[in-house]
Amino acid sequence: MGKRKRLLQEKKSEEEEVPIELPALPPPRVRDSDEPVKKKGKWMNRKRVLVLSARGLTHRCRHLMNDMRSLLPHSKPEPSKERKDDLKVINEIAEVKNCDKCLYFESRKGQDYYLWLSSIQQGPSVKFQVLNVHTMKELKMSGNCLKGSRPLLSFDDSFNAPHWALIKELLIQTLGTPNHHPKSQPFHDHVFTFTLLDEKIWFRNFEIIDMNGKLAEIGPRFVLDPVKIFEGSFGGATLWDNPNYISPNTHRQTIRKALGLKYVNKTYERQLAMKRRPDQLVGDPTNEIFQTKAPEDAKGQEKQLFIRKKNMK
Questions:
Q1: pLDDT, averaged across the chain
Q2: Closest by alpha carbon to 151, among 119, 182, 188?
Q3: 3-class DSSP state of 16
Q4: Could you give the count of Cα atoms lying within 13 Å of 155 in the half-sphere of its Cβ?
Q5: Closest to 64 measured CA to CA, from 130, 144, 124
Q6: Is 290 exposed, middle or buried (0-12, 13-18, 19+ CB in 10 A)?
Q7: How far apart are the C-alpha atoms of 85 and 105, rounded to whole Å?
Q8: Relative to the CA of 44, which of 176, 233, 284, 290 has its CA 20 to 30 Å away?
Q9: Cβ–Cβ under 8 Å, residues 63 and 116
């Protein structure tokens, strides 16, 4: 039996087709396993931005702060600070968090919003009043961008004065995302625009739709009115004071005075109208003809008139 099986296997092997042998290709010069691993770029600019607020922040200003945190991948959050604490405490918090820039939001009287932009190490710091705040959830614009993408910073040509140039440099160092940041994306798909109008900075955030310059607004949008520039971080000598700045209390006081003057003018006009009016109004003398007395009030000869009327009937 073993010899018969061996013969059958030899016949089957002869009947099978012989495969065609192809010429061997030369091996590649560099194999995939030998290729060097592509290393990520070095994260040289290790700056971080501390974003925090004071207690008692309104819902609108809190949403604005959350929008800024989402737009800045190099930001670090921090719980709210007590109002009674000195602003210099923020410098210690930033040093613990390894942050060299800071965005500090605060509100007063539930309607006035302020923003501190500070360089922690050596200063300077700028205090802004935030006006016309509109958050991303409120606007519901058609624009959109990926979280962590790096923004382009676009400034108006009017940032020429020394104080505006200092504010511009501080905004670039704070809001610009460092290259090769671990939490950032390696591309640009939105742009921050800073326009100088009426001595105020108008902030807008746009999505880059097309390379031809087509944009779509994302939000948020707000206006920064600079109040003062200080030499140090959250204090120090005043480098520049805005002469055109009007505090909210003064603005509301002028509005109340204008309303008060409106009431005073009305009362004064009413008094003049009373003075121009004569003491006694002179009517038509012929109206006395149709004035008659009742029979009960008639006396003397006037009674004879009513008696005659009765007899005639």
A1: 84
A2: 188
A3: coil
A4: 15
A5: 130
A6: exposed
A7: 14
A8: 233
A9: no
